[in-house]
Design goal:
By secondary structure, the chain is an all-alpha fold. It is built from three helices and no strands. The N and C termini lie far apart (86 Å).
Length: 115
């Protein structure tokens, strides 16, 4: 009885050239991901600059920090955008809900500072 492990005769072992090509492609893709992540962070920063101004305006005019009707419209709009972009709409909604909660928290802090 032989004590050998099965091997696939049809699957060649990866060569060093293949390994290098795979590593190069991974690096290229990861560099793209890093660039996209940086853009997302900068876009969120710009968004929060705008929402801070909204928070100040709301506080100055004694408007509530949250606007459920606007939030519902934004969620519906973002879900549609996600679908057209082939992104899971539920994920997009969760992300926007997280952002909205943070914006409302900022607006409440701004309002507390103006009272």
């Amino acid at each position: 009885m032989s004590d050998s492990t099965p091997t696939s005769a049809s699957t060649p072992a990866p060569s060093r050239a293949t390994d290098a090509a795979v590593r190069a492609e991974l690096t290229r893709l990861r560099d793209s991901i890093d660039n996209i992540d940086a853009a997302v962070v900068h876009m969120l920063a710009e968004r929060f600059k705008c929402t801070q101004q909204v928070g100040v305006l709301k506080a100055e005019h004694q408007l509530p920090p949250a606007d459920p009707a606007r939030e519902a419209r934004q969620i519906a709009r973002l879900r549609e955008l996600a679908e057209s972009a082939k992104l899971d709409p539920a994920f997009a909604e969760k992300l926007l809900n997280f952002i909205i909660a943070e914006v409302i928290r900022h607006h409440e802090t701004i309002a507390d500072g103006t009272r």
